[in-house]
Q: What sequence folds into this?
């Protein structure tokens, strides 16, 4: 593993190398660093090293391991006709807001923020998913109470009810994703890669700028479509009689 420090330019430089465990799929370590654009895992004998490239300046706590996948384990969905998956949303930026209906920080900050994001950005570019991850007061935060809460607070984006765990108070998705509490914000880029995982409230402007930056990055398929559309426009323009004045 590479221990990193942030320089004044916003780039991450190497501090020192720590060895990965060579046993596939069982190593996971929490790092505090800025958001990440890409991760390369380089094998060397029986060890692995990670190269991390930053994309933003929002501090985050990310879980990195040799293998890490993110799936939403939901017992029920609200505000959607069919269950959603992160794989089905590839090509869009996805913001997951983990919350509890009795969490003051969620009610005051993170849920209004998620509602604003859902209103301001096109769902072709950005999808908001609420994740109701109850790890306390289970008896009073069931599905019926959540449905009433969603109706009263006019939350229109899809919301997944995190599946209870058989081994403890933490629900399945919360435990699998290594979330430290609520509210938590988890963001995936257009390629489905983890871009940010943050516990607590994020400043509106910083979050909006970060999401806008991710949206501006097109996938290779979108880049190809854009090039094809531009080629058609250039061809039509060259065949036209002259410039057109629009009002």
A:
């Amino acid at each position: 593993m590479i221990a990193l420090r942030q320089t004044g330019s916003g780039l991450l430089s190497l501090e020192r190398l720590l060895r990965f465990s060579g046993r596939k799929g069982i190593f996971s370590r929490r790092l505090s660093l800025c958001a990440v654009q890409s991760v390369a895992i380089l094998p060397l004998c029986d060890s692995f090293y990670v190269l991390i490239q930053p994309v933003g300046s929002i501090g985050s706590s990310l879980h990195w391991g040799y293998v890490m996948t993110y799936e939403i384990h939901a017992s029920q969905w609200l505000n959607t006709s069919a269950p959603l998956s992160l794989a089905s949303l590839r090509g869009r930026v996805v913001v997951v807001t983990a919350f509890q209906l009795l969490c003051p920080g969620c009610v005051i900050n993170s849920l209004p923020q998620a509602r604003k994001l859902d209103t301001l950005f096109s769902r072709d570019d950005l999808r908001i998913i609420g994740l109701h991850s109850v790890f306390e007061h289970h008896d009073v935060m069931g599905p019926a109470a959540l449905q009433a809460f969603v109706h009263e607070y006019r939350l229109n984006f899809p919301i997944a009810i995190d599946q209870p765990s058989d081994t403890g108070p933490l629900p399945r998705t919360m435990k699998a994703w290594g979330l430290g509490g609520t509210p938590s914000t988890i963001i995936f880029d257009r390629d489905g890669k983890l871009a940010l995982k943050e516990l607590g409230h994020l400043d509106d402007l910083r979050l909006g700028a970060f999401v806008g930056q991710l949206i501006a990055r097109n996938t290779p398929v979108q880049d190809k479509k854009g090039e094809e559309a531009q080629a058609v426009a250039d061809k039509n323009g060259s065949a036209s009689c002259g410039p057109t004045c629009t009002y």
